[in-house]
Amino acid sequence: xxxxxxxxxxxxxxxxxxxxxxxVVVEKPVPQGRDLLVNVKAVSVNPVDAKVxxxxxxxxxSPRVLGWDAAGVVExxxxxxxxxxxxxxxxxxxxxxxxxxxxxxxxVDERIVGRKPLNLDFAEAAALPLTAITAWEGLFxxxxxxxxxxxxxGKTILIIGAAGGVGSIATQIAKDAGLTVIGTASRPESAQWxxxxxxxHIIDHRQPFAAQLQALGFAHVDYIFCLNLTEQHWANMAEAxxxxxxxxxxxxxxxxxxxxxxxxxxxxxxxxxxxxRALYQTPDMIEQHRLLNQVADKLESGELRTTLTERMAPIxxxxxxxxxxxxxxxxxxxxxxxxxxx
Length: 342
Known about the structure:
By secondary structure, this protein is an alpha/beta fold. The chain has helices at about 45-55, 120-125, 130-140, 165-175, 190-195, 210-215, 230-240, 275-280, 285-300, 315-330, and strands at about 5-10, 20-25, 35-45, 55-65, 70-75, 90, 105-110, 115, 155-160, 180-185, 200-205, 220-225, 240-250, 270, 310, 335-340.
């Protein structure tokens, strides 16, 4: 049995507990079917990592490895693989139903893997997959934004939480699609980051939306992409959205949402979870492979750029606990990436 290094959890503990994430040794997996075995070079940390790790009354008999953003090199492939071969550099988010990327090697279905952009190093690439998939699916699949820039001329999108991980790439993709992008931010540094990444205008999500939009000359917006506190912004979104507009959120809520607020305007509401395709093995799983390759094309052409803001090394439990704590603070801009196992 070949072993590998990883970071795992046995108990679900507060991040300031040194046992919340631990350095472990686990069995190196073997690829079968359409799985790639990837030698992980860099990983990034997302809110989902902190949510899964958050304290709960549960224990694991063997260490559970988290992590859903990685870039690395294909080590081996299953018998049914056709998209990649050993030696290929890749980036991907993976499946929440499987062992994560916080280990030296990881199995991932090739249908949800993209080729690593040639102009990015592994850390720069690892910052992008989960957020890029979320943004792409949210914009083009859930909100049904046209891919034709001319058809989007004059149309507006409000991105709530424009400086976060998803917001940082969503603003770029929306701007690239030809939309007028209005981002929300509550601090000068996050507002500037959002502007630098494609936002045409900024409003404060701590204040009512409608008056701020009207001050900018917008009676309403055609699309809203909510990346922060759905229930807190619900009434503001219902007021700001245009008749027959569309709203998409990625943030679950413990409170009931009053959908009748959307009825008179015939507004569409949709959820986006980038794990859906892999979790349910949908017939169109390969769309994530395709969209990651399209994102790679746009990164190489300069139409999009990485959202990495902080590098940490090496990949170990101590550094991962620091990264989780920063993500849990809710004030991070862009993405935190860890690189290199030692």
